[in-house]
Amino acid sequence: MGIEIERKFLVTGDGWRAAAHAVIPMAQGYINDQAAMDSGAQKASVRVRIQGDAAYLNLKSRELGHTRQEFDYPVPVEDARALLTLCVGGLIDKRRHLVNHGGLLWEVDEFFGDNAGLVVAEVELTSADQVFDKPEWAGAEVTDELRYYSLALASRPFAQWSEAERG
Known about the structure:
Order of helices and strands: EEHEEEHEEEEH
Number of helices: 3
Helix content: 10-25%
Radius of gyration: 15 Å
Oligomer: single chain
Number of strands: 9
């Protein structure tokens, strides 16, 4: 069983761009939606993702916060394309920028389409209490805010948020 320990932050400014050493285009969708999770009908999100020349089927447990169960399985890209047509809600279009900072790999997700304007940084940790150096471009922590999860963004994209929700 895989465990993901991840912290998520809003990104402020463009200071991270010069430090990015790779950019990966991603398209992803969900077989289930936020309503199925909220109602308790499902206890895990089921995501299809094409990233660059690879594709994956991913399941993540419902827990809110920094620690969740996660399972990731490679699938043929053609299968992933077919699965994306079966997804509910909107598709997520983003570019993942990889940035090394403080001995850790940060993933800065720059969203497009209905989520354009949103930029979020994530860092995976080895333990929930791991101390890390937060870069100056990592702003407010949103790890515990459901609306920033990709499943929520597929169901209710950033373009539909009120000004108050945007921060």
